[in-house]
Design a protein that fits this description.
mainly alpha
Length: about 150
């Protein structure tokens, strides 16, 4: 078996160099030792390949999970940004409405002006009433149906 012989030669050469022995001859393995070493190598290679496969599959699964989670976070972030944008537009609209509504002091001022105008009109009407009775022609239409000024 050439594979076991090569493995044995590399292994022994490395061990001898580590121990400081140079140039020593490496004896070939007998048939039984070579078969045992081959079975051991095959078992280790099988375990190594299975473990590597499990690691690769776990890595792919983890990456898929990470991508899925990142997409969820991304979607949630986009939804939050849309909500913030919507709320800011609503806030601007409400601020415009609040600015359009006159303040309490402006309302009080307008009420005072209205009262003043009413007072002036009341005084003017009181002054006009005696004059109007003098101007209105006597006749059958005095009162509600007066075609003249329509004030009596």
């Amino acid at each position: 078996p050439p594979l076991q012989s090569l493995y044995h030669w590399v292994e022994m050469r490395t061990k001898m160099r580590i121990m400081g022995l140079q140039g020593a001859a490496i004896k070939p393995l007998n048939e039984e030792a070579a078969a045992e070493l081959g079975a051991e190598l095959l078992g280790e290679a099988t375990i190594f390949l299975l473990a590597s496969g499990c690691l690769v599959l776990e890595y792919w699964r983890h990456q898929k999970h990470q991508r899925h989670r990142q997409l969820e976070h991304s979607a949630a972030w986009d939804a939050l940004q849309d909500e913030v944008e919507h709320l800011s537009l609503m806030l601007e609209a409400l601020q415009a409405q609040v600015q359009a509504v006159p303040s309490q002091s402006a309302l009080e001022e307008l009420r005072a002006q209205l009262q003043e105008v009413r007072t002036q009109l009341g005084a003017r009407d009181a002054n006009l009433l005696p004059r109007l009775t003098q101007i209105a022609p006597p006749g059958p239409f005095r009162g509600k149906g007066d075609p003249g000024l329509g004030l009596l």
